[in-house]
Amino acid sequence: MVRDTGEEHHDRQDMINDLQNSGYALGEDFIIMDVPNIVNITYGRDVGYKIEQEKLDPEIESISATELRNAIVVGGELAN
Question: Fewest CB atoms within 10 Å of the CB: 2, 19, 48, 72?
């Protein structure tokens, strides 16, 4: 995964070439995914609160985990 920071210092083709030169096959051994640039992860007690909304691509934001779960298993059996 490559963090999407908006900077242009990563060359996707260079990454692919480096991995292939090391013996890995694109689509079989690896894929390259852009992920949001998450900069704050807070956990534990008394850490204070900072709430930020992460914005993803509309294609990803439209995914419903509830719909996926309902489509996969209904009453212990795979749904149609």
Answer: 48
Which is higher by pLDDT, 49 or 39?
Answer: 39
Query: Per-residue pLDDT for 2 more than 70?
Result: yes
- Taking 3-state DSSP, the helix, strand and coil percentages for the chain, each rounded to the nearest 5, stand at 30, 15, 60
Cα atoms in the Cβ-side hemisphere of radius 13 Å centred on 75: 2
Can you tell me which residue has the tokens 């992460």?
A: 54
Full-prediction pTM beyond 0.85?
A: no
Q: Is 40 helix (H, G, I), strand (E, B) or coil?
A: coil
